[in-house]
């Protein structure tokens, strides 16, 4: 992958992957930083990227793993203010409607949340979600079904608690 | 009672809000991200991969010396003495020839004569005999971890098989060579029939067999799905098939590993099969008569420049890795071991010579994603040799306080300071600037000479952005503190 090709890939995929990681971990700053680091690693391993069937999936998986690694959680507290790329500039604006959804997603079991994000936000077919997660398609379908039901309840509760103040439309 | 609704619409809207162009400006430019990637790569290269290149050189040099210069006449003599020696097991790769890397290596599990029970390659539609071979031998290998904390037993699903065959004529061998290349390239239907519908192959690439009139091709492939016991969602079978043609003989090196990452860049020494091709070609050459069981590592340190110290002067249980913290997260350790690649330095465009040659050497490394550390202990034949070897590294850096900017626009700077350990020691600090500003990348080498030994402690991390000199001092202090035990034992060697 040449620089121009990578730049195009980065421009096309960065926001999308950041949103997906944000939905999975519930922290936009962390999602932005991990996605950025995942893209940097993709460039460092660009031959691997050339051979990846789904480069965006590679970046998403790397970013997600970075976000959940114990190493990262520890290092985040120790980070120097001068750390490379730490000044993220203008991060993606947080839509108020996203906050409630992400808060609800965070209350789901990780497996259900991951399935919902990959299928409904990343727009992957069930077969590809199953391949990316490493479980049978039937398991993904079950997680999607349970996750949707649980999420509907959580969002309804949120709406009720907020007295209709949280807008999902 | 709140009304429930299907949240799919919310999820879809959320995704749409994060499409390209939505949600504000990009936080960093792609160029910035690439620079960061280059930093990651440079540090990894300095600590691991750059050193691997030396190991490759050590592996390939014996082959080259057999075909160039004075040693070539020895090879020619061998060929002249027995140019028609029949194909045999001696033409197969041995444990000493096979390489993988990344803390793993291939180990022979069986050798057989004839076509064997299994196909010599997933895509092979006929046996070697079916292709016209008059003699065939094969050897199988399994992949095992070589690090102290590696899981016991072979890596499930990974294997290496080499098949060598002799044909009635060079033309017949070439025909078989071309046929196997075609099979591997057009393997989709066959792979599907064997339960691997997701077969993907890459363009064949030429490789250098490093023997006269030899020819080699390598083809990589990926296929799956993996069986349930190996599936993790992202891994596949990663195949690398090398074909080597020498006269009327053909070798097929079929490597298959399970993973999602097969990241062996040319600057790191190339892929495992690329590194094995010259060795396979050298063995295949009629009359080569290479040893059947060479030392497991052709990358062993050279013989001493003078006598006095044994070739295993470092006890196997020397605590070279003592004092490092436990790996936390996605890190790794390697060694202590004698067959890890030696440290290398390239300063102001010139490689620092690893000279005089040590009589024994042991290496260990510790790596986390943004923090890499390594230790290299070398024992020399004499104290004078140790002094010369240490100063070769130190003076190369002292003579190069600032390098030209590299491809990413970053300028490396070096400083050499006196250390406080051993009979004499030095701290070599390296930091980087980009367009006049410090960038967060730091390298520190602590070179310690004690008698006829040289211990080099090295570290690469993300320091140096605000106060490079302070970060160098801090890192050097930590290196020495962590290595207190091996440093204290240097005088016992």
TrEMBL record, chain A:
Keywords assigned: DNA-binding, Sigma factor, Transcription, Transcription regulation
Transmembrane segments: none
All residue ranges annotated as the RNA polymerase sigma-70 region domain in the record: 11-76
Cited InterPro entries: RNA_pol_sigma-70-like (IPR039425), RNA_pol_sigma-70_dom (IPR014284), RNA_pol_sigma70_r2 (IPR007627), RNA_pol_sigma70_r4_t2 (IPR013249), RNA_pol_sigma_r2 (IPR013325), RNA_pol_sigma_r3/r4-like (IPR013324), WH-like_DNA-bd_sf (IPR036388)
SUPFAM superfamilies per UniProt: Sigma2 domain of RNA polymerase sigma factors, Sigma3 and sigma4 domains of RNA polymerase sigma factors
Domain RNA polymerase sigma factor 70 region 4 type: 99-151
Family of the protein in this entry: Belongs to the sigma-70 factor family. ECF subfamily.
Protein name: RNA polymerase sigma factor
Source species of the chain: Nocardioides ginsengisoli
TrEMBL record, chain B:
TM stretches of this protein: 45-66
Residue numbers spanned by region Disordered: 15-37, 285-338
Organism listed in the record: Nocardioides ginsengisoli
Organism domain of life: Bacteria
Alphabetic keyword roster: Membrane, Transmembrane, Transmembrane helix
UniProt protein name: Peptidase S8/S53 domain-containing protein
